[in-house]
Amino acid sequence: MKVAILGAGESGVGAALLAQAKGYDVFVSDKGAISDKYRAELTKAGIAFEEGEHTLDSIYNAQEIIKSPGIPDTAPVIKGALERTIPVISEIEFAGRYADGKFICITGTNGKTTTTLLTYHLLKSAGLKVALAGNVGESLAGKVLEGGYDYYVVELSSFQLDNMYQFKAHIGILLNITPDHLDRYAYQMEKYAAAKFKLAQNMTAADYFLFNQDDAEIQKYKAGHEVPGTAVPFGLKEADGLAIRYEGQSILATFSGISAKVETANSPLIGQHNQYNSMAAVGAALLVGLTPEQIEQGLGTFKNADHRMQPVGEIDGVTFINDSKATNVEAVWYALDGIKQPIVWVVGGKDKGNDYSTLLPLVQEKVKAIVALGVDNSKIVAAFSATCPALVETQDVNEAVKLAKDFAEEGDVVLLSPACASFDLFNNYEHRGRAFAEAVQNLKSAGI
Fold this sequence. Notes:
Blueprint: E1 2-6, H1 10-21, E2 25-30, H2 36-45, E3 48-51, H3 56-60, E4 64-67, H4 76-83, E5 88-90, H5 91-96, E6 102-107, H6 112-125, E7 130-134, H7 140-146, E8 151-155, H8 158-162, E9 171-174, H9 189-197, E10 208-212, H10 216-224, E11 230-235, E12 244-247, E13 250-255, E14 258-263, H11 272-287, H12 292-300, E15 310-315, E16 318-322, H13 329-338, E17 343-347, H14 360-366, E18 367-373, H15 378-384, E19 391-394, H16 397-407, E20 413-416, H17 429-446
Parallel strand pairs: 1-2, 1-4, 2-3, 4-5, 6-8, 6-9, 7-8, 9-10, 10-11, 11-12, 16-20, 17-18, 17-20, 18-19
Antiparallel strand pairs: 12-13, 13-14, 15-16
């Protein structure tokens, strides 16, 4: 059987190597340039590939196409495949056919990476054979090819969920649904929500669907659609039927024969959003058989992903936090809400059509100064200058850190939480976060 793989990044090359191992005739096509790392892997495996173009005869000669999640269904090469009734699937869908272990899958607009990493850490620290894959790092196909795992903890974006059909999560976690990537969904929240809810497709009563009971869009979609799987609602608001909830610094879980209390005092995660993330991860850990003691130990040793509420230094009693991954308003809301100290907020970048109005009460309550870091800060200035008159602009990250430090006093927090994409001044949000952390260290070394 011939399979064509579109995109030669992490997911595409992982799918190519797995497909070859399973006896497929594989052809990889990338319209852009293939990185040296992935070109070397394909060459070493003897897999046919091309870059800089799509040779349609070779692609449409395949019985199935595996596409990168970054390629929309509206792309001409995909439209042509669908017109020819060639099945187009995701790397996750393909890898799922060959995995022996169980899938714990996490999606949501915000919090996916933290929840995925925490779930993986809890299981791994308890000694389980567990792989980490999907949107957070290595391809699921690559991990399936390695083999030897009882569980796969997989972060899934809506783009990955779009082309999944037979795949089934044994434990699915839906954290929240807020506007994002709507250009891929005809600017309709219903279509975006439907993509997120594909997480629960094909579930049976033996599978578990953990969802945020407090999220309005989740509740709206659930009210109009039948969602398979055993429902496990979690939340912070008092409601009937909550399976997982917070009480003080404890997570209480009562569902499916489980009755457990997990203390969270030693967790490094701060903020309301991380309470949701922690409830979800703890619920998954309990479902696979971990004890509260094992979970508490894992919570105490967890280190979150870089660029997500990551402390990167302290100068004269002022703490600097890198939250560069917060590229939308909702993520910034959670960051501001979670910090109890006075905040000097570093914000800005390439605007994504943001509506900043939801942040105004938090800015009024908590933010003493704003440093706008971006090429065009006009929208930020218009949104916040009346609420926070101490607002300055810059296009230099080192100057931004220096200005923020000047505004701050001992006990304050300087928070980089941009609410915007990074592409005006940086290559990506990681580049922005690293540059911020380096600027903090430079300022500390200078002793200014």
